[in-house]
Amino acid sequence: MKDSRDGIKSDRRAKSSSVSSLPLILDIDDFKGDFSFDALFGNLVNELLPSFQEDETDSSEGHGNISGSDALPNGHFRAPSDAAKFAQGLSDPLFPEVDKLLSLFKDSCKELVDLRKQIDGRLYNVKKEVSAQDSKHRKTLAELEKGVDGLFESFARLDSRISSVGQTAAKIGDHLQSADSQRETASQTIELIKYLMEFNSSPGDLMELSPLFSDDSRVAEAASIAQKLRSFAEEDIGRQSIAVPMVVGNATASRGLEVAVANLQEYCNELENRLLSRFDAASQKRELSTMAECAKILSQFNRGTSAMQHYVATRPMFIDVEVMNADTRLVLGDHGLQASPSNVARGLSSLFKEITDTVRKEAATITAVFPSPNEVMSILVQRVLEQRVTALLDRLLVKPSLMNLPPLEEGGLLLYLRMLAVAYEKTQELARDLRAVGCGDLDVEGLTESLFSSHKDEYPEHERASLRQLYQAKMAELRAENQQISESSGTIGRSRGASVASSQQQISVTVVTEFVRWNEEAISRCTLLASQPTTLAAHVKAVFTCLLDQVSQYITEGLERARDGLTEAAALRERFVLGTSVSRRVAAAAASAAEAAAAAGESSFRSFMVAVQRCGSSVAIVQQYFGNSISRLLLPVDGAHASSCEEMATAMSSAEAAAYKGLQQCIETVMAEVERLLSAEQKATDYKSPDDGIAPDHRPTSACTRVVAYLSRVLESAFTALEGLNKQAFLTELGNRLHKGLLNHWQKYTFNPSGGLRLKRDITEYGEFVRSFNAPSVDENFELLGIMANVFIVAPESLATLFEGSPGIRKDAQRFIQLREDYKSAKLAAKLSSLWPSSS
């Protein structure tokens, strides 16, 4: 068919110029493989289109010389001289092959339809064939499935049979094994009975035993058999003792087994001793394999406890007395019990390192020799702590009696406590090192704690007693120093002597810092020795309370000593208060003595202020120490922190009371000197100058200048010593007392107008000074004084309007008005009664 189609195609190409063409013949194979519609379409039309393309090419060449002006709008060209040809060209068809192509396309469509029908027919036949084959295949598969199911059933029956046969074989094997085991057990029982009968001979007669029990090469087997016989005999005796003997045979058997048990015990003891002797001999020669063999056999006797204990007990460090003496010399040196804690710490570190190295070496041997090395290590470490370490601690820590404290020259209680802390810390380190080496199931930490139990029971009492001993020694030392200074100063004036004594007995912040350092060291020992938070808090609170008592007592006594200086100065002032009718010589002597008393008072004032300042610094040190070191140890226990805060406030209350009384005495001292200066320096003419035409003096009076100078000098120490509310309260009280004292002082004098100006200048001077107190109420009082001083300056008729804005001071102003020089001559009393009836 293809050949005919190719022939037709070639014939069609030969007749390409003809109008009609032969029918196309398409083949199904043309659509197989890499089918391309463009290629199929090209093969159909290329036979017709080449003639048209050639005609178009010739037409283009024929019109190539036509000018652009002869071009037609549709793209064709016309000849300029031949219009007829142009009209003929328009009547011819532009694409003459259209009819051929249409015929070709129609034929192609028909053939394509025929081909589709052929393909559909073929597809139908294929589907029918496939359906038949599928049905056949399904039938075959069903038959195969039936066959496979049959095979599976056969395999299941076979597997069940195999399993049944296997179980039967296993049962037979178990029966055979059980029978063999019973046979072997029976054989062993026969052997044991035979051996038991040998041991059932006369008591103590071990000469007729089998060679097994005397052959050194079969010691392990003999030991195993002896233990089995012994266990069997003891168990049988136990059963016989429980059951009521019914026949004589039972009693006879029991008596026989008792003989066997006695003989077995004797043999086991002899065998065990023989093995221990062999073990010792091998140990001396360092034959680890022989030692291990003996230890393995001995493990059958009481789980090898005797061998373990025997090995540990024969270590040189437990039996050599020289080792114990060397330990003591290494730790205590040549000083014996007077060795310093630092030297003891170094000695303990060296000794415990040596012990740890020795235990480590023994651990290697124990691991290679004993079947249960952990149990042996437990016994070894326990023996080290209970014997070697305990013996050293007994020499090192001799607990002193609280009723008869050791003297400080020999270290006192503090030396014992420091030794205890060093020994406890180093022993704890040893316990940790031994735990790292290995100590089995031994509670090495608990055992270490038990070594110090007797010391820890009374530890808090010893700590407090030590702090009291240190405090008493420090106070004795300070008193001795003060006594020595007093004796070296010789005989001087009583007032000067009092000042010197007071200055030498001042509170020292360095001493308080030393108290805190003692306490801090004690707290560090508490932290080391007390592991439970509750116990630690109780110890810390007790130790801190000692510090509070010491600081409170020390600063209170210091303040009281400073107060004694103020009291002595007051006594000196009272001693030299004289009446008015005395001779000039006596008055001069009294004035000189009063100056000395004033100097003593000023010195005592400064000394007390220094004491107050150092007291405040000491309390601040204690508070800072509490906040930094004590609080964190008390907070874990409910109520401990608050309780300590209350105790701290209570302890400092005595010092606060002494300070308050002393500050009151300081005010009395200052005011007494102010009054003395005013009485000695103030003259009547200061405020009642004669009217001699001389210009009035606008300077402060001599008394005012002396008083202000004295206050500035003496209060300088108060400004430095006092702080905060204490300073404000003290200066306010002093300012009010000064105000009151000046009012009383000025009541003794008479004022004229020029004297009033002088008084106003004094008040200004006093006011400027007290302004440094930063006390608003005091400033207000002196401002009112300045206003009241105007009553001496203004004319009598102006007094009524002088206090219109300040009615509250009229009463004090009326007292001032009575001091006017013209009070009686101007009849001011009557005028004031009419003007201020409420103040009369």
Automatic annotation (TrEMBL):
Q: Keyword S-adenosyl-L-methionine, does the record have it? A: no
Q: Name one Pfam family in it.
A: Sec10_HB
Write the record's keywords in alphabetical order, separated by commas: Coiled coil, Exocytosis, Transport
**Which residues are in the Exocyst complex component Sec10 N-terminal domain?**
99-215
Question: Its GO biological process terms?
Answer: exocytosis; Golgi to plasma membrane transport
Could you tell me the superkingdom of the organism this chain comes from?
Eukaryota
InterPro entries xrefs: Sec10-like, Sec10_HB, Sec10_N
Domain Exocyst complex component Sec10-like alpha-helical bundle: residue ranges: 221-831
Query: Has the keyword Transport been applied to this entry?
Result: yes
Query: How is this protein annotated for GO cellular component?
Result: exocyst
Q: Where is this region: Disordered?
A: 54-74
Its family?
Belongs to the SEC10 family.
What protein name does the entry list? Exocyst complex component Sec10
